[in-house]
Amino acid sequence: MIQAKGYAAQSPTNDLAPWDFERRDVGAHDVQIEILYCGVCHSDLHQITNDWFEGIFPMVPGHEIVGRVIKVGDHVKNFKVDDLAGVGCMVDSCQQCDNCKQDLEQYCLEGNTQTYNNLDRSGVPTYGGYSNTIVVREEFVLHISDKVDLAATAPMLCAGITTYSPLRFWKVGKGHKLAVLGLGGLGHMGVKWGVAFGAEVTVLSTSPNKEQAAKDLGAHHFVVTSDKEQVKKVKGTFDFILDTVSAEHDMHLYLSMLKTNGTHICVGAPPKPMEVPVFDLLGGRKSVAGSGIGGIKETQEMLDFAAEHNIACDVEIIDIKNITASYERMVKGDVRYRFVIDMATL
Ligand code: NAP
Ligand code: ZN
To answer: The pTM is what?
Structure first.
């Protein structure tokens, strides 16, 4: 076994603290990565607090991983020692079902293996990226260009692909009015992609103080959702709403902002079910949809597109010792727009 160190929550009521653990040895098809940076996703907080469901503890969160390959198995074809590499939200899938065969491993019919808070296919708990090293089968490792900023690229592995994938699937672009709901880690990438794909982008936010920042990201318009006058002006105007909100919210309000035939795409994952008033849907043939991360092929396409077009996350690099304080700031919306742990501080 490989000795690893990281930060773990020992229970849903414990803060994260240093923890030593073991990872499997590098198998014939595995890549071992020395982790250099790991992004801090709101999903990490949902999971260490049992917000979604009962988790597996001790839990080492982190699924926005960038690092350097330090060892490869005998049958690894596409990676060699010293390559830059990334790992996102999943580390395995059945590879055989209809979805896996269509490069949709995130929707594996047997369930994909999540990078942490999950059991791998041999029943061993998975541990995430708030750690010095990880072992992953090569099919789930991404190539990272040596021309990009590594810290700013780490959150692309979750926040980046989760917003890229639905905008590509629904072919959002020129001629579309896209609203991005919630300007956090996912939301700021939604804005960048929307602008890059040629859409007219509006940020819908609960935070009036984010207006300038939204415009700096390239958003064309900004609406404070608590301001009745501003909301009135955007009723019935959006083709798509990309909903990145992490807590329950009023779907009636947002559905009223969609055009006829408009689509409200949920990527945010509030723990409790939300009411969707059917009359809001049938009064304009509107849809509510959802989207989860993206497949490996699409994640690589997204990373390559981002490297080519100079798109990356806006990040604040943190010392891992400040992780609990960073969660508190994230909940308050006090992050522009993603905390990224510098693993050298471990
Ligand atoms: P984040 O950085 O905390 O951003 C969430 C934003 O939502 C906040 O900045 C805030 O923006 C807005 N917000 C928060 N509470 C709100 C409320 N009660 N009502 C309205 N707006 C609210 O979180 P994140 O890392 O971007 O993650 C967002 C959500 O996506 C989380 O639930 C996460 O688990 C989920 N997620 C899903 C996937 C997937 O595969 N679908 C992947 C990754 C993450 P304003 O200040 O602008 O209002
Ligand atoms: Zn995430």
So the answer is: 0.98
